[in-house]
Amino acid sequence: MREKDKRFIWMQLLGFDKNDPDRGAKRYIDQIGFVPDGICALTFHPDLVNQFRGMDEEYILPPDICAYYGIPRNIERERQEWSNHDLRVLCHELKNLGSGLYASVMGSYLDNMFHQEWLSDHKELRYRARNMWGTLNCLKRFKDGTYYEDFLADKLAETLVAYGFEGVHLTDAFCPLMNSRYDGDFSTDMVMQFIEHTGIEVPADIRATFGNDDDDKAINQRGDWIWNNYKIEWLKFFDWRWECFFKKLCAKLHAVGKKVLVLGMYCTDPFESMFMMGFSIKTVINAGVDYIMPNIVPTGMYMQTGQSFFQRYFNQIPLIRAQTPEGKYLSMLGVQDASEEWNILNHAPCKLERDMYTMFSFQYVDDVSSHRSMNGLMVCLGDGIPSKDWRWMNERLDIAFSMDADGVEGPLVV
Asked: How many whole angstroms from its chain centre is CA 403?
């Protein structure tokens, strides 16, 4: 008998109410009409972890932790000032109700818009692409040569335990890194890591650019040298770095009883994910990640761009499962997002219904039988949805999850 399909929700703290004694935990569970297997609180900013300073003192969390990009409101309520103690109460109350809260963080950097950001004091960890500085590159080293991932693993374990989170949910601009590997990161540190790992000999003109990361010309020169001569080695290097990163992170968090969920994929299949991003889903699963969340939001993308990616995006499902059948996957069900300003539930409900049924119709066929390709779903985002709309979605999700198959007579993807 297969494992029960998992139902996770990704949502902002705006969906809870810090003025309730339980910080809105029961109110929200009653509103959605079921107890989810997990709730990923979009606390958004990595400074939830980077600047964590314990629980002895109560302090107010900055706006870009209390809401996605610090937006002032969603359809339900104004942004509230959550403290570290408020968030701890919410974690424990949701656990008491049979669910649990995950810390969902992005690798974002907002140039001190809402608070003095940790990354402003550690510029060496910022992503350096062709012609631009980006957000956090979690694979980089501090000025003293130590790895951010070692700092992160220790700090994250401390943070999750202190709050009572079930685990961490690493998402946009954190994993995978922003842009493609053609764009970087071509900082001195990442290129030095690359040549230290591969032993490739560096020409004198390239070595002369090291240490000059503010110069776009130097960055592009390094990038062209690597991409034109060592593209495959560059991609395999990032695959190796992600393996190192997640082995450390998963070992540390599993040791304290916490799980690791990763968004980790913006491409249409495992090959493209590796070829464009240097990110192998198989490598990450084998490193210990508990769940991968394929970013399947074709209707959300259509509403933002006018382009239909339906067939391409949904083909992620069978290809991922075929490549790494041992992994656990939560399909991302794009419903609405107040920060990004799209709402499929209200503007394209028939397409949302189609998305639900399509996600869970894909089967993986092994030597014994067929199995559903996905292990469950992640509703994105789950705050600001009224009870009546949750009832509508739950009815259709029950249908989608009931579509078990004894065999497959349709076309197979090989």
From this structure: 28
